[in-house]
Every structure is written in C-alpha cells, then in structure tokens.
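Obj.: predict assembly geometry.
Materials: sequence records (below).
Method: joint structure prediction, all chains together.
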Amino acid sequence: MSKIEKALNKARTTGSLRVVSPQPLSHDKVTDDASAVSNMTALIEQRASVNEAIACMQEKSRLARPVLDQNRIIYPDLGENGAVRAFREIRTKVIQKSQGRNCVIMVTSVTAGGGSTFVALNLGVAFAFDAGKTALLLDCNFKNPSLHRLFGAGIFRGLTDYLENSDMDIAEIIHPVGIERLRIIPSGGRPEIPAEYFTSLKMKRLLDSVKQRYRERFILIDAPPMTQSADTQILAEMCDYVVLVVPYGRVTDSQVDACVKAIGDKKLLGVVFNNEPSPPTFTWQDFLNPLRALWQILFHRLKTTRAG
Amino acid sequence: MNLRPEQLVKVLVDEAFYYRKAFVVAFIVISLAILVFGLLWPKGYTAYSSIVVDDKKVIQPLMQGAAVTTDVADRGRLAREVIFGRKMMSHILEVGGWMKDNPSPIEQERIIQKITKQTTITNVGKDIIKVEYNDDDPQRAFKIVQKYTDLFISESLGAKSAESQAAYDFIHKETESYHDKLTKAEDQLKDFRSANLDARPGSDADIGTRLNQLQQRIEQATQELREAEVKKSSLEKQLSGEAEVTTTLSREGQFRSRIAELQSRLETLRLSYLDSYPDIIQIKHQITDLNQSIVEDRQRREAAKAAGRVIIDEGVINNPMYQQLKQELSQTRVSVEMLNARINEARRQLHSELELGKRVHGGEATLAELTRDYQVNRDIYQDLLKRRENARVSMNLDRDKQGLTIKIQEPATLPLSPSGLRFLHFVIAAPLLGVILPLGLIYARLRLDPRIRFGAVISEKLKLPLLTAVPHLWTPIEAQIIRREFQWISLAVTGTTLIFAVVIALRLMKMI
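Observations (raw structure tokens):
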C-alpha cells in the first residue's frame, strides 16, 4: 500500500484531497436515542465531508458542448433526450443493485463496434451528474482504445504503462477529462500486453485502491467485446458486475446466450440494448415543406456560386 | 418471437428509417414504374348483356312421370358452344368489320381466336347467362354483344321450336301405337269372352260353393245310409228271434194261479183263525174245487189227444211284435234304396261341377291377363292423349313465339367508360405499392434475419434483465446530414408527386 499512501500524501499536500477519518458504519447496539442521533449526525457530517472532498477535486477546464456532442457524450442540459433518460435509468438500477455502495462494473459488448465504450463513458457521465458521486473509467480495450481521444493531442500515460512500470504511481494515470467528477484511465502507450497482466496482483491492487479511494466512486471498465477477446472473461472475474451491450440488429440470440453463459448469472447486472434507430430530434416542419427545402437548397447554391 | 402489432410497427418504422435512402429510391422507382405501366395499359371497353333462359325444357313438363330427360347442368357451356360455333362467328366477323379486308381463312381463324379470347360467357345465377365482350372500340364491343345476343336467342328459339315439334311428333307417334295396342287388346278380350261364356268373373266362387254343398249332401246321405243299414240288420236280427204266433196263459195255468192265490190267502187266515173258521173252510173248498177242475181239464185234453183231435186252445194268437218288426224292416229297405240312389246322383253332380271348375279356372287366368293388358293400354292411351294435346299447345306457342323461355334480361349498351384496370387505379396503386412493397421486403428481412431488433426479445425470450434500450445519440454533424437527407428525400417525394400531378393533368386533357 506504499504507493497508495504516497499518492494520498501527494494529494494532501496539493490540497486536492482531504482525507476523512473513516467513521465506523457498523453500529453497535444502540440503546439510547442520544447515541443514535449522534451517529446520524456523524453520517451526515461524513457525507458532507465527502461532498466537500469531491468538490475539491482538481478539474480540467470543462469540455465545450460541441465537443460533447461530437463525442456522443450526454450532459444534463440535453433534457428529455432518450439517451440521457436511458443512462439515468441504468445508473439508478446499478445503484439499486449495489445498494448504494461503489462497485466495479465492466461494460462489454457482444460484438465489436457494439458501443461498449459509448455505454461505459456515458454511464460514467450519468454517475458524475450527481454532485455526490464520481466515476472512474478504465479503458481496457487495448486493441481498439478510444477513450484517449477525449484528451485531444498528446500522449497520456495509461493502464498498460502502469502495469508495466512498477514504480509508477496511480495518480499519474488518472486523468481528469473535462467533465466534472469523471476521471479516466486511458489504455496507455503500449498497445499490446499479455492477458496475464489482468490477473496480476498489481491490477487487483489498482482496482481495490481506486475503489477505496472514494467511497462514492463508481469504477467502470470498458472491456473488449466478449466474442473477440479472452481477456474480457478474465476481467469479468475481477469486477463486481458486468453490463452486456447488445447492439441493435447485429447479434443473434445465440450469441447473446453464449456471452451470458461466459459471464455467469451472478455477475451479470443486465443487458443494455444499444443504438436503437430513432430519427434525430428536429422540427419536422422543415422537411414537410419541400418547397421551403427546395428554396433553401437553391438559395444555398446561388449564394455559393455568387461567392465563387 | 411473435411481435405484437405495435412492436411490429415500431420495428418497421425503425428499419425504414435505417434504410431510408433505399426506401425512398424504391418508393420513387416503384410508383413511377406503375404510373408508366398505367399509361401504357391498353384501354378496354366491355359491353355485356344478360339473357334469361328458362330452365325447364318443353319435353320435361310434358313427359313428367312418363319419361325422364337428361339433365342439362352447365347452361353457360352450351351457350358457349352455340356462340363460338362457326356459323355465329362468321356473322360476328362481318358485324365487327373484319371481313372488309377480305382476310384469308388463316387470318380469319386468328381473328376468331382473338374474339373468343375477348368474349366471356358466364352463368350468373341459375338461369342467367352473361355475355361480355371486350374491345378497344366501344362501338364495336356494343355491336358484337348485341349480335351475340340476337343470334343466340334466335338460334335457341329455333332449336326450341324444333324441339317442341319433335316432342309433339314423338308423343303423337306413341299415342298411335298405343291406340293400335288398345284395339288389339279389346278384340282379344271380346273373342275370349264369346269363346268362354262360363268364364265370368266370380264363377269360380259359385262353383266352389256348389261343390261344397254337394260334398255336404253326399256326406249326409252316406251317414243316413249307414244308419239305415244298421237299422235294417238289427231289425232282421230281431225278426229271426221272434215267433210268428204267441200263446196266451192256459186254463190249467189260470186254475193253478187261482189256487196259489187262495192258498196264500188261506195261510194268512190260518195265522189268525182256526181251521174251523168258516172263511178257511170256504177257501179249502174252493181250492178243492179248483184242483178238481184241473184234473178234469187234463183228462179232457188227453182224451182229445188220444182221439187225434186238434183242440184249439183259445190262448193262441198272432204275435203283434213280429208284425211290427216286419213292417219296419220293409220301410228301412225302401229307405236304403232311396239313399243309395241319392248318393249316386250327388256324386254325378259333383263330378260334373269339378269338370266345370277346371274349365272355368283356366279361362279366368287368361281373362285376367287380357283384361289387365287392356286396362294398362287404355290408361296409357288416355294419358298420352292428354299429353299430346299439351304438346300441341306448346308447339303452337313456340311456333307463334308466345311461350318465350329465352329473353334478354339486360340489353347491351354502348360502354362509355373503359373497363378493367383504369389509369385511376394505377395512380392510386402506385404510391400505395411504393410504400407497401419496400415495407414488405423489410418485413420479410425481419422474418428471415434472426438478429435482435427489439429490446423485448432480450427480456421476454432470453429471460435476461434488460436495463434499458439506448437510442442512437446523434452528433450535430450526423443530425445535419440527416436533415439534408430528409430535405432531399422530401424534395424527391415532392418531385414524384409533381410528376404524378403533371401526368394526371395531361391524361385528363387527353394529351397522352
């Protein structure tokens, strides 16, 4: 635990983190009301201090909405968008299942391009909507990593670097992404590492430490598709829950069945049916009035030719 | 998994959106193709007329019960045979104006085939035949149907008249033949009756009664004869045992019985009185006197006997019983003779009656047969006479064309609007099929493709916990592209609609 302690010390010195002395959650037999009230007060204080600690997290400058839109990331202002509603629903179900405790959730797809990264990232964002919760996203899809694109240009150290390098500190690989309360561990610079690294003690420690760092932090692992990588099954062993992404019109019943059997009933949190086709929300009047559309197109052409 | 209707609609809409470009292209291509097809579709004018044909033929009601005719099942088929006959077709060729160019027989045959193909003869209901003819010229269609109807009716009526004439002839011939038969039967009956006078109906029964009576009489007489003979033998037996004369009681006997009587009286008196009693003494004296008398009588008889004289004893008389028996025997003998004579007479009569019976029985069978023949022939002849009169009336009706059983229900009219598929149908069908056919393809793909397209499949079929269904999240660029696409799509659809409008307008103005 020396690395974690080192990281904690570093955080303390930078002021980004205030360690709260852990209060015993398990109550002894409370005999009088006074002690119960004092316990409740302690809990509220603890919660407040956690929120305060979260509030003190160092954040990168927020990602602009166009960037979020471009990267298919939800944000609260989308309002009654179907996707926002869907991810909030998933978040609620996860919290219900874990009974409010933080947990490690692996998100994997049945087939490649099924949208596991999309689901994992937006589920993390949905967790981070809540000011009292944070989310950490691990990109374990080494063959086809995609989370690093959120950071723009530049090489960021990630998971493979950490697993390879014994001296590296966890804090070095956890990066803010520009979304409040969301942190990302990218896959790292080494594109291929043996699957055995997943079963290494270091990986296990990493998961434990990130899970315990904040009690309100939910850890999401973006795993490779089940049908394409054996690593996914190893990763599933190390997680608390698995969310299986089934893309619309791309997989059969038997494929889903095979994946569910590989995961096991106990770990399977549920299935997300992803990418249902639905037209984008725009005013239909634009399209129901073809003359106007024609006019718009002609006008656009006219303008461009004049400009030319 | 069977989708519910609302689920199916959602999946179809989703898929249609997914393949929006192909869908719109298919819509435009299909609808325009159908529109072009509709423009090229040849106009056809159909004229028709319906003819009512009475189902009952002349011969049927006339010969009902007496003869059965074959049933005519398909009137339309018969009509087809009449109409498509060579005779009728040559008329049609002339009416249709095809003979103007003097076509060769092969060409004529080809034209006839074409006409046959364009003619439809159907049975509408039981007795109505509908004749339809389709042609690109409404005038010609009308004329041909009119000609068809007229020719068919005149042909049928001619055939009908001939049929009723034939029916009359047939019945007339039959009547004549039965008349001959009846006359013959009458003659036979007459001859037989004159030959066999005894052979009357019921004579058989009379003979039977008489035979019974005779039999009874013979039996009775025989019985009486037997009794008489028994009586006769019995009388003869009695007569042999009876004496011709009988003796009455002799004088000596009379004395003796008197003595016995007195002796008994004496005994009685002695019980009460002594011998000295005067009555007893008197009786004793009387007895002694009687004994004396007996001795004297005996002596007198013996003296007579010795002298050889016959002494007629006043006690001998003729036996009355013998006389009576003799009389009865004589009567019985007469009666036996008489009964024998009666029996013989009855037997003779019986024999003659039997002979007569045999003769009458044979004659009666022949008579019954002859009578039966006569009656049957007479009944049929009378029936035929009635039918012949009916047939004559029917024939006259047909000859005068009064009993029309074929008439035009709906005469042919000049068709004003084209029949069959019209341009309007194509205009309506084009957009509908333009939408339905691609949707049908999508549906077929959904049926054949096992990949999951509906979230409910996961929860309901695979029984897995479905967290949620996440809709596609569009990036602004994608949304913009979609918007553009929709603009193009709506433009294309509008263009297609405009094409439709222009084509319809041109068609209405009869420019195309």
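Conclusions so far: Chain A touches chain B through 53 residues (CB under 8 Å).
To do: check interface contacts against the pulldown list.
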